[in-house]
Amino acid sequence: MRAGVALLAGAVFGLGLLISGMTDTSKVQGWLDVFGAWDPTLAFVLGGAILPMIIAWRIAARRRQAVLDGPIPAQTDAKITPQLATGSALFGIGWGLSGLCPGPAMASLGFGGWQGLAFFVAMVAAMIAQPPVTRQIATAFGRGG
Amino acid sequence: MLDWVWGLAGGLMIGSAAALFLLMNGRIMGASGLLGGVVDGSRTGAARSEALWFLGGLIGAPLLWHLLRGAPPTQLTSNIAVLIAAGLCVGFGTRLANGCTSGHGVCGISRLSMRGLVATVIYLLAGGLSVALFRHVWGMI
Q: Which residues of chain B neighbour A12 with C-beta distances below 8 Å?
């Protein structure tokens, strides 16, 4: 049952990305291109995506338990860290450069050709490398973890 | 039909998928966290298998669409250096920041998370700056 819901959620997410235009890199780069031919579509995508989740968090606050058991993740650490800022900036640069963020990168694997695969392989490699590389940098600057 | 109608409809689907995953399974629908946790081995047990099912649907449904209805439009660059550099930035950055557009943007902002809001403002600004520089200043993309 949990597996089925996960599969369904993934499929709806993927089709939503496709229908909304998030897998079309020219539309994403058009949204980020405020000094060029700006494309406002993605504001509707983000707005539309946030609406059901506002309702979901309200329900979650009352229930605290997921329907299929297990706790609903609580809001924990609210600290704005250098990692959050640096990571988001780096992500934004790559997003603008390619027009792909992680969800659409996976959703377009089925039709993105070798270009989509090359991006995906590089993204996965960096995801695997991130924890040890960050530890190395922290050690080099004399700060643990 | 108008682009914004499709954008809104697709957006509602994205948010509904996130709501379903949260309320039914108690999981946050963050694409970079789900994929990253699987590939770096930090997600184990049920969390890992559910992430794998989710990723299967995320990759499989658009693939099925492609097979049945033809390839959806996309304009990915064929510049291999740009693809690899962008992939590295997105992979490393989202794991360092612990979230991307779906996690920080959709799931974070909707619960008024300050971290989600700050992350979203930063990656939007960085993305805008990136397109401005690489497209209009250096003419690379």
A: 13-14, 16-17, 20, 57, 61
